[in-house]
Amino acid sequence: MKKLLVSFTLMLTLCRSYADEGMWLPMLLGQQVYNDMVKHGLKLKPEQLYSMNKASIKDAIVIFGGGCTGEIVSNQGLIFTNHHCGYGAIAAASTVEANYLQDGFWAADKSKEISSKLSVKFLNRIEDVTQKVNDALGNLSAAERTKKYSEVVAEIVKGIVGDDEFKDAVVASMFKGNQFFVFVYDVYKDIRLVGTPPESIGKFGGDTDNWEWPRHTGDFSVFRVYMSKDGKPSKYDASNVPFKPKYYLPVSLKGFKDGDYSMIYGYPGGTNRYETSYGVKLATDITSPTLVKLRDMRLKYMLEEMKKDPAVRLQLASNYAGIANYWKFFDGETKQLLKFDIFGQKQKAEIAFTEWAKGKSEYENIFTDVAKNYDAWNAYAKHRQYINEGILGSPLVAYAASWLSVENLLSKKDFKPEEIKKAMDAATAARKNFLADENKKSDQHILAAVLSMFYSDVDKDQHPKGFYEDLFKTNNDIEQNPYKMFAAEVFANTMAFDDAKWKAFTEKPNAADLGKDPAFKIAKSFIMNYNMNYVPKYAAFVNKNNDLNRMYLKGLFSKDSVKMNSTYPDANFTMRVSYGNVKSYAPKDAVKYDFACTISGVAAKYVKGDYEFDLPAKFLDLYKAKDFGEYADKKLNDVVVSFITTNDITGGNSGSPVIDAKGNLIGLAFDGNYEALSHKLAFDKDLNRTICVDVRYVLWCIDKLGGAKHIVDELTLVRN
Ligand code: ARG
């Protein structure tokens, strides 16, 4: 079996021959890291990677939407990203009659592109604000630190952004609060859908293949960023013109072989590689299994309804995909953490640390305090997960929970009518959004199931007072399931679904009527119980944990003489570059996985009419005719669909460009492999792989399958 090396031991030895681990800040690449990139095959100069004055690769990289990466690939603002990143916008642009999610879409020209609610952000500059933040924090206690930190961050952000709606500034904490940078962005809000393959290509293999290699998904979609006529960031406006980028990526048709250099720029969302053994144990024992169990249940009821009706499929698709993605992730992560005994490895490192810390008053009690802190919180962790993933996993209850602020206003003695009016208007608007996304059947099942699961799973002392007593008293038909009876009553009577009742309430809003609404009663019982009794405990736990972790890292760096600028900080949705190589791997004894998948492999997985493995008829025709154009891999006489690299990435990197040694686009990163799903907490140098869609398959889908050659013509293609 392969040996797993935990990331922090790697970083601390700083032995760069262990390469491939590391999400580096491109603006702070040291000579050592650059040299190692060159050793891996890079042929570019440092200023081509990142430069403040000259156009460089970093100028082609954007934050796409809320949590993805995209790259500029033409001088007219064309963006490539993943299909699963464009998914929400594609679903929103679709109707049952014009179903772009199902059938795909290619704008015949710019006038046919579809505007979206998305925005993209370009990194403008970064600034080290460590001194400023530390001056403000001084020697405050854990709880005071948290409060002061948000104040000083708000002040820094306000100083930069003011009220410019096209600027954004984010203060990012590095090394668990030992260093702080502010990242300043230009925000473009006119983003239009240019095209997407059908879902049967863009999400081919669905959740069965998700997080797994081999993989045959064409996970890409195409957008365009627009700017105002005078070249400024803008909201949607018909008079806007395509964005003129400082830099865009050329696209390679040359392909690659096992071992070739690969570099990925993007916005990895979060890793926690300095997590303690205590955090690992809490995740594997309580929080992750609870999340998985609750999502299992929610997904089952959603899918049941989605399979019955194409309109419901469209309505729930985006939400379903998001829930399913991290359901499988946390299930896989738990398995890998246990398999490789990450807990045991972290524990060993902590024992060594404590040994070193003896007699050093700043550090010697850290792990006694960490243990105490976890002991005080662990008993409530499952409850917290049940609130977030269970109670609020019912869309009705989540919506009704938003009425808590209305109740708050109504219960004030001296409430102001204008304030109430404003709150009611907001609640009515939120209700409209809620109803547009709501599928009552699945939600009613979810509500009944979650109430039942909470009852048996969460410690009885922690239940909201009187809630279950009332539920059992009124739903006492012994022939029936009390939870289902109760949920049926709630769905039949809440004003959330009843226009007349809602209208009556908005005309005369009062706390007494609101208090009688059965959906509101659930939200109020569970949320108030949680907020009053457990939120303070959670806040104390988090504040203390942050403080202890900051000190642990400081100590660890001192113990091993590590300088912050010679290693990489945990991912935190700031721009990073990772380098490695295209590379096959051996997932288990006697099994070897090749580095690339082909169109033939897609066709081999085809199951007619299947929810996840169906294919468009045109795909099969083109495949049979071997109509691959210039997108075929010469050696294979087939189109490479996807490939794997050793790059270190994580969620948020979705859509990131995979770049060859000379700076050309060869693919888009879209996933991680199952065998290394512990990557957020521990990087595995043997098994970790990034799964990428080959850009030649992207172009084949646009040109041959989509008939949109004009989009390929916009790119700068590199043939030799
Ligand atoms: N696992 C991919 C990621 O997190 C998302 C894949 C979306 N597909 C799906 N079947 N849910 O980047």
Characterization of the model:
- The chain has 720 residues and is an alpha+beta fold.
- The protein has 4 domains: 2-119 and 189-270 and 570-718, Thrombin, subunit H (Beta Barrel); 121-188 and 537-566, no CATH class; 277-380; 394-533, no CATH class.
- Strands 1, 2, 3, 4, 5, 6, 7, 8, 9, 10 and 11 form an 11-stranded antiparallel β-sheet that branches. It has a 7-stranded antiparallel β-sheet with strand order 14-13-19-20-21-18-17.
- The protein is globular, with a radius of gyration of 26 Å.
- Residues 1-18 have low confidence and may be disordered.
- Bound molecules: arginine.
Let me know the average pLDDT: 95
Oligomer: single chain
Bound molecules: arginine
> Cα distance, first to last residue?
41 Å
Evaluate the radius of gyration: 26 Å
Q: Enumerate the spans where pLDDT stays under 50 for 5 or more consecutive residues.
A: 1-18
The count of β-strands is 22
Number of helical segments?
Answer: 27
Helix percentage: 40-55%
Strand coverage percent: 5-15%
The level 1 CATH classification of the largest domain is: Mainly Beta
Shape, principal axes of CA atoms = globular
Enter the CATH topology name of the largest domain.
Answer: Thrombin, subunit H
Question: Biggest sheet: strands, sense, closure?
Answer: 11 strands, antiparallel
Judging by the overall fold, what is the CATH architecture of the largest domain? Beta Barrel
